[in-house]
Design goal:
about 280 residues, alpha+beta, Structural Genomics Hypothetical 15.5 Kd Protein In mrcA-pckA Intergenic Region, Chain A, Pseudouridine synthase, 4-stranded antiparallel sheet, 7 helices, 15 strands
C-alpha cells in the first residue's frame, strides 16, 4: 500500500493528476483499474471516481507490487526488470523502491547495476547479493556486458554503421548536455556506436551501443548528427514529435549481452548469455 498526503500544489486538483504525478510507477490504465475496484481511499473513504482533492487529504492506494513489475529474467543472483517510462531507476517511488517492496523479505536489498533515463524504457539489471553486485559493477566498468538500445530517429543516417566520437558537457543547472566535435574545457569524451536496423520513408530504427555512459549521451549525440530520437522533448524537434504523435522518446534498452573476458566467479554461467525483450518501432 502507498500512502501520500496532498500538498498545496494539488489543492483543488483531480485525484488522477495527483496520483500519476506522485506515484509514477502507476500507469493510467492501472489507475483506472484501481478506481473500478475501489482500491483507492481518500481520507479513509473508498472512491471509484476522479474526485477533487484538497491540501492535507490522505490518499491510500492499495496495489500489488508484483503486478507493477515486469520481470524479464530472474535466478539466484540477478534480476532483470523491464522499466516503464516516467519512472526513475533510483530514488523515492522509483523502480528500485518497487523492487525492494516486492522482495522485502530478502536479507540483501537488490541493487541496480546501471541506470536509464526517466523516459527511457527497457532492461535494468539488479544484483541479488553483494558478491553478484561487485562482479557486475566490475564487468560493466570493463565493458564485458553489452547494453543495446533501439532508437527510432528522424531521417536515415548516410552510413550503415558508425563509431561516433565527440565531447559532452553536462549543465546540471539546466539539466541539459551539449555536444562538441572537438575538445573544450569541461567537456568529456563520448563514444557511441549505431547500426541501422530498419529504414522508413523519413525515419529509421538504430541499434545503439555506448562505450561511455554519460548523461543523455545517446539522445544528445544522435541529435547532434542531425537524427534526433522521435518523441524526445529535450533534444528532439517538437514539430516532428507532433507529426509522429510521440509524447515520449522512442528509445528502449532492449538487450543485454554477457561477454565475460575474465573469471566471473558465481556468475560464470551467464557468459555468452543474451537477455532481451521484443520491441518494434
Amino acid at each position: 500500500m502507498e500512502v501520500v498526503t496532498v500538498t498545496n500544489k494539488y489543492n483543488g486538483k483531480k485525484l488522477n493528476t495527483f496520483i500519476l504525478d506522485n506515484l509514477p510507477f502507476i500507469t493510467q490504465n492501472t489507475l483506472y483499474k484501481l478506481l473500478r475496484k475501489k482500491d483507492i481511499k481518500v481520507n479513509n473513504k473508498r472512491v471509484n471516481t476522479n474526485v477533487t482533492i484538497h491540501t492535507g487529504d490522505i490518499i491510500s492506494v492499495y496495489i500489488s507490487y508484483s503486478n507493477l513489475l515486469q520481470i524479464v529474467y530472474e535466478d539466484d543472483n540477478i534480476l532483470v526488470v523491464n522499466k516503464p517510462t516516467k519512472l526513475e531507476v533510483t530514488g523515492t517511488n522509483s523502480l528500485t523502491s518497487l523492487v525492494h517492496k516486492k522482495y522485502d523479505n530478502s536479507s540483501f536489498q537488490y541493487m541496480p547495476c546501471h541506470r536509464l533515463d526517466r523516459n527511457t524504457t527497457g532492461l535494468v539489471l539488479f544484483a541479488k547479493n553483494k558478491t553478484a553486485l561487485d562482479i557486475l559493477n566490475k564487468k560493466f566498468k570493463n565493458h564485458e556486458i553489452e547494453k543495446h538500445y533501439l532508437a527510432l530517429v528522424y531521417g536515415i543516417p548516410k552510413k550503415e554503421t558508425l563509431k561516433m566520437e565527440a565531447y559532452l558537457f553536462k549543465d546540471s543547472k539546466k539539466s541539459l548536455v551539449y555536444i562538441s566535435d572537438s575538445f573544450k574545457k569541461g567537456y568529456k569524451k563520448i563514444i557511441t556506436y549505431y547500426n541501422i536496423i530498419k529504414r522508413y520513408e523519413n525515419s529509421s530504427v538504430l541499434d545503439v551501443q555506448i562505450e561511455t555512459g554519460r548523461t543523455h549521451q545517446i539522445r544528445a549525440h544522435l541529435a547532434h548528427i542531425g537524427h534526433p530520437i522521435i518523441g524526445d522533448g529535450k533534444y528532439g524537434i517538437n514539430k516532428i514529435n507532433k507529426e509522429f504523435g510521440s509524447k515520449f522518446q522512442q528509445l528502449v534498452a532492449y538487450k543485454l549481452v554477457f561477454n565475460f573476458k575474465t573469471d566471473s566467479g558465481i556468475l560464470n554461467y551467464l557468459n555468452n548469455k543474451t537477455i532481451s525483450i521484443n520491441c518494434t518501432f
